[in-house]
Amino acid sequence: MKTNAVEKGSVLIVDDHPEDLDMLIAALQTCGLTIIVAPQGYHALNLAEQFTPDIILLDVRMPGLEGFATCRQLRSQEVTREIPILFIAAVSE
After folding, report:
1. What is the pLDDT of residues 8-38, one digit of tens each?
2. Closest Cα partner for 11 from 62, 79, 78, 58?
3. Which residues contact 84 (CB under 8 A, 6 or more apart)?
4. pLDDT tens across 53-84, in order?
5. What residues contact 33, with CB distance under 8 A and at least 6 apart?
């Protein structure tokens, strides 16, 4: 039997810009998702392993461990290897 109910999931947002985080959180909260926030790549590694989100939104440019390096480390861990990752990049002038 099919239903129209959508199972709510969790998303890990990794971004060091508060303005970008606010915008993403506001948009995703309306969908009823559980939102986990990491301001840096190193934090994301710990949170992803601890909570195993359904998807990760990962900023490309961050101080410390940048997005691509964070992705490589997530892919090297068995617990986080299969989590889908969407790269995000906000460029403003």
Report:
1. 799 999 999 999 899 999 989 888 899 999 9
2. 58
3. 54, 55, 56
4. 999 999 999 888 999 999 999 999 999 999 99
5. 8, 9, 10, 11
